[in-house]
């Protein structure tokens, strides 16, 4: 099954939202779950934590008793947070605009800058994973041939990314790439003069009241823009609610509405029935909160079943943390919770 196949409805639809979750867990349909936190119109409508085996960027942590204060890997949901940080930096005129050429901002690679087949690369292509450069993250993240793992082990991670063979015209093909996000993270560092965690704290976490976080770094000391962030479920939900409010938090502007709207605009199909914006997946689903047919949702997806899901039209945000790392069916539990429990049981405002 692909990540866009909808599992058959198996949880009793007559139950309440929390009742459905409890029934799904008790029946064994919802496995490896660590945390669920969802809000609708700004109010918490579902909250659940349970113990389970966990990891921190691949390092086993053993059995963890999860609760409201427990940090959890976001894995590739980190990418979506980094996209948001680029927008904040752009609002401050600290980084180049998305339509700017990419390679002039890496002048240490004059040979690549002069290469005719790389002249068309733009920052927008990195933000939308349409660089057209060879990249393979289909392999397990325990495999050294996985491109993200190879990048982390490379002597120069940015040259490793930018020197990949060209396999498509920039902007024409979506290729999932942690390397694209590494470039975005480095543009933020160069433009702001701060490490990614430093800028995140000052520009995003402090304004939202997020005090506790961790950010894994590679052997070169560089924070992983692709997968290294750890947050409490409540703090990731705050980021989701900031985006539902189009960049406003308690009346203060954190990121421009223009950036949020551009990030959520479908740019290219991903090949599995979804679309991709600026480091966000985009799909559609029905919900009891709204009349009519399907409504768009936006999401950050992470290895193991990590999810930040948003349905802007309905004012719904949901965080799901899971421990099913490196498993092909890790999408099943979060998809069931999102579709069968949250969207299918949300009240109309």
UniProtKB/TrEMBL annotation:
Indicate the segments forming the Beta-lactamase-related domain, all copies.
36-324
Q: Does the keyword Hydrolase apply?
A: yes
Record-linked PANTHER family: BETA-LACTAMASE-RELATED, BETA-LACTAMASE-RELATED DOMAIN-CONTAINING PROTEIN
Asked whether the keyword Transcription is assigned, the reply is: no
Kindly give the Pfam families that the UniProt entry links to this protein.
Answer: Beta-lactamase (PF00144)
- Key words of the record: Hydrolase
Highest lineage ranks of the organism?
Answer: Bacteria, Pseudomonadati, Pseudomonadota, Alphaproteobacteria, Hyphomicrobiales
* Organism domain of life: Bacteria
Q: Which InterPro entries match?
A: Beta-lactam-related (IPR001466), Beta-lactam/transpept-like (IPR012338), Diverse_Enzym_Activities (IPR050789)
According to UniProt, the name of this protein is Serine hydrolase
In alphabetical order, the GO MF annotations are: hydrolase activity
Recorded source organism is Labrys okinawensis
């Amino acid at each position: 099954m692909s990540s866009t196949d909808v599992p058959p409805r198996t949880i009793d639809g007559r139950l309440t939202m929390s009742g459905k979750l409890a029934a799904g867990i008790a029946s064994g349909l919802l496995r490896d779950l660590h945390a669920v936190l969802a809000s609708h119109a700004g109010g918490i409508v579902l909250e659940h934590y349970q113990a389970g085996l966990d990891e921190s960027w691949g390092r086993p942590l053993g059995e963890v008793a999860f609760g409201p204060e427990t940090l959890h890997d976001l894995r590739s949901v980190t990418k979506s947070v980094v996209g948001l940080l680029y927008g904040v930096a752009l609002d401050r005129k600290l980084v180049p605009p998305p339509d700017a050429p990419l390679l002039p901002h890496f002048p240490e690679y004059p040979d690549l800058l002069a290469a005719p087949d790389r002249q068309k690369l733009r920052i927008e292509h990195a933000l939308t994973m349409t660089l057209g450069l060879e990249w393979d993250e289909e392999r397990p993240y325990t495999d050294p041939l996985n491109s993200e793992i190879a990048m982390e082990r490379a002597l120069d991670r940015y040259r490793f990314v930018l020197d990949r063979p060209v396999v498509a015209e920039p902007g024409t093909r979506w290729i999932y790439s942690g390397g694209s996000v590494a470039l975005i993270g480095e543009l933020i560092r160069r433009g702001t003069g701060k490490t990614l965690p430093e800028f995140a704290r000052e520009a995003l976490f402090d304004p939202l009241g997020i005090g506790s976080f961790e950010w894994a770094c590679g052997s070169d000391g560089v924070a992983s823009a692709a997968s290294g962030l750890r947050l409490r479920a409540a703090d990731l939900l705050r980021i989701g609610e900031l985006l539902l409010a189009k960049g406003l938090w308690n009346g203060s502007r954190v990121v421009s509405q223009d950036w949020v709207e551009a990030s959520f605009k479908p740019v290219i199909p991903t090949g599995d029935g979804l679309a991709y914006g600026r480091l966000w997946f985009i799909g559609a689903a029905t919900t009891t909160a709204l009349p009519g047919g399907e409504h768009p949702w936006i999401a950050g997806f992470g290895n193991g079943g990590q999810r930040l899901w948003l349905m802007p039209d309905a004012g719904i945000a949901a965080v799901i943390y899971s421990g099913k790392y490196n498993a092909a069916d890790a999408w099943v539990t979060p998809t069931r919770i999102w579709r069968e429990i949250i969207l299918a049981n949300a009240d109309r405002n």
